[in-house]
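Obj: model holo form, ligand = magnesium ion.
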Amino acid sequence: MKKVYFFGEGKAEGAGLGKERLGGKGSGLAEMTALGIPVPPGFTIETSVCAGYARGGGLDGVRGEVAEALARVERATGKAFGDPANPLLVSVRSGARSSMPGMMDTILNLGLTSRTIAGLAALSGDRFAYDCRRRFLQMYGGVVLEVPKHDFEEVLSAARAERGVSSDAALSAEDLQRIAVRFEEIVRRHTGKDFPDDPQEQLWGAIGAVFRSWDNDRAKTYRKLHRIPGDWGTAVNVQAMVFGNRGETSATGVAFTRDPSTGEKKIYGEFLPNAQGEDVVAGIRTPRPLSAEGSGASLEETMPKAFAELLRLRDLLEKSFRDMQDLEFTIEDGKLYLLQTRNGKRTGFAAVKIATDMVEEGLISREEALARVEPEQLVQLLAPVFPQKEKEEAVASGKLLGKGLPAGPGAACGKIAFTAQRAVAMAARGEPVVLVREETSPEDIAGMHAAAGILTTRGGSTSHAAVIARGMGKTCVVGAGDITVESGGSGLRARNLRASEGDWISVDGTSGEVLLGKLPTRPSEVLQVLLEKSLPAEKSSVFSSFTLLLSWADAHRRLGVRANADTPTDARVAVLFGAEGIGLCRTEHMFFEETRIAAVREMILAESVEGRRAALAKILPMQRQDFVGLFREMGERPVTIRLLDPPLHEFLPHEEEAVRKTAAEMKVSEERLRERVRALHEANPMLGHRGCRLGITHPEIYETQVRAIFEAATAAIREGGKPRPEIMIPLVGTKGEFERLKALVDETAREVARETGQPVSYLVGTMIEIPRAALRAGRIAENCDFFSFGTNDLTQMTYGYSRDDAASFLPAYIEAGILPEDPFASLDLHGVGELVSIATRRGREVRPDLKVGVCGEHGGDPRSIEFFHQVGLDYVSCSPFRVPVARLAAARAALAERQVAVSSTA
Ligand code: ADP
Ligand code: MG
Ligand code: MG
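Output (holo structure tokens):
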């Protein structure tokens, strides 16, 4: 069976075989050759040989084929391997199916021996020959013979110092010759043997080393992290050398067919004259730009013919590969060769622009465009940014306070507030605020809302601050351990810097950096158009690509996309981002507001039902106003409102001082307040007296909320609106709980209708967040209009720990293989997903028209969304800023399903 594939002179035996067998690099070389693109001839040993080699199979099975292919390379180049007069030199390059750092580095100039060096010198001079020789010794010594690379570097830098030059390019032939001798000594010292001087021995040494590198520790770690199967194996590419180091008419470089950061259709990249392969990335010399920019040093200006050829090949490659390409090229004596092509990595901005541009250019279909953009990449398009230059200047002038974990992308600056109350107060004066806390807790929500950015000095990426910030789409850095918040919140310290309340601070939630002072920020272009309306839509190409792509997504998705929004402002943002309704409005946030908390506490402290009703009567008009605002924003779109969920003690103060202050404000004794706090204390607040249980023990609370909803809906109807309230009962575990509270809702609705003469249509459903509810879904569904999976709590209760708890042990679990990943991040059939699937099926068996959605954080996670699509949910609901992500993910899920259907019928 054939295992070695020749490419060269316009023919490629491996064309069409693909990456699975030839690896990414080998497949690219074959395809380019077949397209007639100038590629130095060579051959690829397929990946299956690697697997055989790993099993101890040796390389004898391919020796014959390799010899044959090498002979063809000799004929194609007119040179011979090991020929002292006209030597063929080759590169040996690894290349797995997907690009995989950690594997063996490439070896250049292989075939150079004490005999062939003379031939090379005769062709192109001593300097060139010894430059190749020392590079080869260094690469082969380091990579195949495993001599510490540092030893070679030391010799080189000593030689540079001795000559007083900064670049290897300035070393003379004699210098290089001496260096080569020193390199040979180093090899002898480390291996106890002479450097191999037989080209065949060099070749097989290199091929074996590539295969062995597949199983080195670095490669294994990388594979584990990226879920690359160990049995894929790498291919080996052996290819005739072309020389970018043959003087000033030669060069080497890298190019992207479009700008990988903006997506603009403009060749992008850099090159170095008189250099070989690794020099461009090594950073020893500063590379030059490819296109003009008036520098006088660009490729376009210095080698216009090669540049024009590069542009021609760019078009050819994009037509053929139908995606943006990342190229490696070498110019030898003015002639351009391509050495590698692959789909280029890109930012979210570039991904969206390139995908939509390519549809317009007729290169790809809309469906392909959707598959080209990772949903998560869209987040980048919404986040504000610090201009790079200003940030670097600030760091250089010592303004860096520290670095934490980036927990909410974007750039924010504002005046420091150390408490949520101060943040709210300062924001109310129109000042941008950054809330700085050691850690945040539910009491900080209002402050987090008011703040432009959030910084915590403790906690990880699953801490309260991180989770809430993600949900709010807020810029956030957590766990910035270099920064200390002084006790009493009077200031913060970091190294030799100090800042007090009201001082400016800048937080980069994309990089995790925290800087003292006020850096300029720019809102993302998309937001400038959508929210601020400061930029006309037709002026922003980012915006038009973004909306175009999402319009294609909407045409393909089956899942509805709603948003979790508690306020009219959030609702407006959600609608602008394309939300089709509100999937979760949490009413407790309305209770925490400063103007209302007093009435809420009065209600909690009341001795009797009458006292509670009196306090609730104060809350009613405020709640009604909240809902009127929401209904106005949402128009005819459904609005799911969850009745009060948290346990009552969350509304009471806990710290001594706060208790004293609140008692005074409320004119009750401190003792009475403390007694209530004690009485309401719960061993496990997550599982306690809350949600629907509260609704059953304190029906007047839910009655008030429901009344507020219906009165607001009536008001909205009178304004000409068509509100669609969907009332959701939290934490239901039994049919009895649900039906008791549904009766309360129905009764209150009837009452309001009697009073106003205006009936309102509505739904009553439940959140499914208790495992029992998921299992008893068939019973609960009997009189229930909808289910909405609260997957945050469902995950907590299924796994028995919270997101925050998980931070301390999850990494160890994943490392040990006990859990494949964080169940709070993504869900599938092998965990909480099974409960979702069971509940959906059992519910719909009883009520085929049961509406089913999800409102946990998983509703904004692309992988979970694919699962929800498969289970047949009606909609997902996520934070407003994740709505575009969800729209795209839902479309991709629908397309993936169609693809599977197509391939299984084929
Ligand atoms: P990597 O996977 O790390 O990019 P490559 O195998 O692409 O490694 O090799 C790195 C660089 O070496 C290439 O970009 C190219 O500049 C140079 N190179 C590889 N093969 C040849 C060759 N046959 N002739 C000239 N340069 C080569
Ligand atoms: Mg490469
Ligand atoms: Mg809950």
